[in-house]
Amino acid sequence: MLRAFMSYYKPYKALFAFTLACGILAGALELAFPLAINYVIDNLLPSGNWQLILWGGIGLFTMYILNGGFHYVVTYWGHKLGINIETDMRRDLFSHIQNQSVQYFDNTKTGHLMSRLTNDLMDIGEIAHHGPEELAISIMTLLGAFGIMLTINWKLAILTFVLVPFLILFTYYFGKKMSVAMTMLFGSIADFNSRVENNVTGIRVVKAFVNEKHEMDKFQTNNNHFRFSKLASYKIMAKHTAFSQILMKFLLIFVLLCGTWFVIQGELTYGEFVAFVLLANVMVGPIQKLNAVMEMYPKGIAGFRRYLDLLNMKPEQEDRPDAIHVDQVKGEITYKDVVFGYENKDKVLKGVNFSIKAGETVALVGPSGAGKTTITSLLPRFYEVESGEILIDQTSIHDLTMASLREQIGVVQQDVFLFDASIRENIAYGKLGATDEEIWKAAEQAQMTKIIQSLPEGLDTLIGERGVKLSGGQKQRLSIARMFLKNPAILILDEATSALDTETESAIQQALAELSVGRTTIVIAHRLATIKEADRIFVVTENGIEEEGTHQELLQQKGTYSRLHQAQFDFDYAGA
Ligand code: ADP
Ligand code: MG
Question: Which SUPFAM superfamilies match (predicted)?
């Protein structure tokens, strides 16, 4: 773990060396003060020479100014180092999360990921700065103080230093306890985030069921757990502070008493005595810093450990080393004996076989839950087949790079996901950097020009989180415009118009018909009326592709399709 941590210093070697050097100089000056004062008291004072004493004062003051400068550098540039490292870690983590498979996101709570990226890494920057640097400086200052004390009076020096290991052991003990408390705290913050995220996303459901009280109770459970974890850590912190204060003062009084005794014995001059007391005081600084680092360390390390856990998890999917990048496929699709099931569940697809010619439009119909969406999710490798093979233009999709494969496929779904941004940005998501001209053209093809023009801010209108400020039909048009810009060779329309009213549906059908021109298109539709025009229709049931043919052919077969059709016809007729 230490090596992983240290590797983050690599890009900042110079910055690290610079702050460390300034820190060491500051430490050295810290040690020089007691010596200078020792000199003033024992040599300058008895001489009675005012001019010399004045120069001594000026010299001391200069030392303090220098010391101030060094402290500035260590504090500012040192923290800069820390925050740079923290930023790098966030970057790595975000990029790592982006590359996880869809399966991973199915099983991971958004709130937990949020905490990993924000809170968990919050203290690592502090550690990155204070950790190695202050550790080095503190230890050097302590050793330096000890060395100087030895030269002044070795007996008193050893007496003083007998206490130091106890102080350090004591800090270590508290650090360990703190680490446990912090891991618990981070876990509870993650739960907390997750709860809020869930509540906000589902607020319409909460309100519709009037379950605010119930949500409040659940929130309060998390909230109390958070309070409990936090209190536990404060208790450790309080004990630590109290004990270390007492021990520190004990050290000073101990030196004071022993020193007095040595002076009375005539083994120590007054100047040396003052220097000793001042040196003991100088030691308090590094010891307190060590304490602070030890206190911060568990926090940072608890976060860093959680960070590494996530970072060391390999993405489930990776390109083969010899994967091919395709620029433009024709769009021929073949499924050969495809078997697939979601984690720990029964197989959803138990041997699916079909092939679609380039440019053909094929409709998948069948009962809900039969696996239609699942079949199409395997094509862009959102999930991986368990056995069997999927080919595009006779090449296995596993032989293509994932990025170039996904470039070729466009999916329009029932529940459109839009980003909390302007209409322009949402359309241009299909082709980053698209010009306004291209965006307007796509909007026109998706039949949404009028809608955009009627909005006060046109393309710059913000559409809210997940596009809440647009109607279902408007959102669907936007997602179609986006697809015109993406211009994929293969198009998947998964119940794209199911949630729309009949009037909007027929307008969007037109846009979709235009979109599918010249592309291999797989349409999943609930309403059979919308797929009559398909070149071929596949009936998907739990047994795989049960029937296949044109609308007319399938009606004549009098099988599942004709039964489905009859049922819907009756329903529509009754409803009309
Ligand atoms: P259809 O689109 O035909 O209605 P789906 O392909 O969506 O059916 O679902 C097929 C089966 O797979 C269902 O039983 C469903 O519960 C299950 N399923 C769908 N998506 C997931 C998922 N992300 N994780 C686990 N199970 C899933
Ligand atoms: Mg579906």
Answer: ABC transporter transmembrane region (SSF90123), P-loop containing nucleoside triphosphate hydrolases (SSF52540)
What b/e string do you get for 287-302 counting C-beta neighbours within 10 Å, with b at 16 or more? bbbbbbbbbbbbbbbb
Question: What is the rounded CA–CA span in Å between residue 252 and residue 280?
Answer: 6
Q: Cα of 371 to ligand 1 centre, how many Å? A: 6
Contact between 263 and 273 (Cβ < 8 Å) = yes
CA–CA separation, 126 and 242 (whole Å): 23
Q: Which ligand is nearest to the CA of 415?
A: 2
DSSP for 133-164, please give it: HHHHHHHHHHHHHHHHHHHH-HHHHHHHHTTH
pLDDT tens sequence across 151-189: 988 988 898 888 778 877 877 787 778 778 888 888 888
Q: Kindly report the pTM of this predicted structure.
A: 0.76
Residue 343 alpha carbon, nearest atom of ligand 1: 25
Parts of the chain belonging to CATH 1.20.1560.10: 2-311
Task: Give the helix ranges, DSSP H, for 323-382.
Answer: 372-378
The predicted pLDDT at position 571 comes to 65
Dist CA 219 CA 225 (whole Å): 10
Q: Is domain 324-408+491-576 classified as CATH 3.40.50.1100?
A: no
**Residue 377 alpha carbon, nearest atom of ligand 1:** 6
Atom of ligand 1 lying closest to residue 372 CA: 3
For ligand 1, atom 11, the nearest C-alpha belongs to 369
- In the three-class reduction of DSSP (H, G, I as helix; E, B as strand; rest coil), residue 566 is classed as helix
Tokens at residue 43, please? 């040599």
Q: Which residues of the chain have pLDDT under 70?
A: 571-576
Please give the pLDDT value at position 530: 72
User: Within 13 Å of residue 370, how many CA atoms lie on the same side as its CB?
Assistant: 19
CA pair distance 159, 145, nearest whole angstrom: 13
Q: Is 149 exposed, middle or buried (0-12, 13-18, 19+ CB in 10 A)?
A: buried
Q: Does the complex come out with an ipTM higher than 0.95?
A: yes
Beta carbon of 173 within 6 Å of any ligand 1 atom: no
Cβ-count burial of 280 within 10 angstroms (0-12 exposed, 13-18 middle, 19+ buried)? buried
Selection from 153, 159, 151 nearest residue 257 by Cα: 159
Q: Is the CB of 372 under 6 A from ligand 1?
A: yes
In short, whether 364's Cβ falls inside 6 Å of ligand 1 is no
Q: Is 117 exposed, middle or buried (0-12, 13-18, 19+ CB in 10 A)?
A: middle
Nearest to 263 by CA among 42, 34, 30, 32: 42
CATH superfamily entry for domain 2-311? ABC transporter type 1, transmembrane domain (1.20.1560.10)
Class of domain 417-487 as given by CATH: alpha beta
Torsion angle of the four alpha carbons 231, 236, 240, 242, in this order, in degrees rounded to the nearest 10: 50
Tokens standing for 538?
């596949």
Using CA atoms, how far apart are residues 537 and 548, in angstroms rounded to an integer?
A: 6
* Of 295, 296, 304, nearest in space to 116 by CA: 304
